[in-house]
Amino acid sequence: MWAHGRPDAGVIYYHCRDYRRSSGAPVSLFAGYRVKQVETRQGMPKVYESSLGVHRSFCGDGGMPLSYEAKGLPGEVYAMVGVLDNPEPFEPETHAGVSQKLEWLYITDELPR
């Protein structure tokens, strides 16, 4: 997956239960972009509606989660930072969903929560 430019909606740690279940990880890191800024360079992702108005994409060959789009966030796509071709520059800017954070997960930073 390739993203052009800086993410419009920032780089966000998501602690929500839904994101844990979709990724299999204790926390997910997403970069928020305008749809036109993100492209898939190989293959065609599969998409499913995980809940009303929320569409998640994943690799049709390997099953790896790629991104999500929500009806409430028109024109935006949130790409999982780990699947981007060059994830190094995507430093987290904030935490979201911290009320659902796993109690044993400690991320010691000064980012807004």
Present the secondary structure layout.
Layout: E1 2-3, E2 10-14, H1 17-23, E3 28-34, E4 38-39, E5 46-51, E6 54-58, E7 65-70, E8 76-80, E9 94-96
Parallel strand pairs: 2-9
Antiparallel strand pairs: 1-4, 2-3, 3-8, 5-6, 6-7, 7-8
Counting DSSP H or I runs of 4 or more residues, the number of helices is 1
The unreliable regions are none
Oligomerization: single chain
The helix-strand sequence is EEHEEEEEEE
Question: From the helix content, strand content and strand pairing, which structural class follows?
Answer: mainly beta
The beta-strand count equals: 9
Shape: globular
N-to-C span: 28 Å
Main β-sheet: number of strands, strand sense, barrel status?
7 strands, mixed
- Please bin the fraction of helical residues: under 10%
| Radius of gyration of CA atoms, rounded to a whole number | 14 Å
Amount of beta strand = 35-45%
| Average of pLDDT | 90
**Strand neighbour order, sheet with most strands:** 5-6-7-8-3-2-9
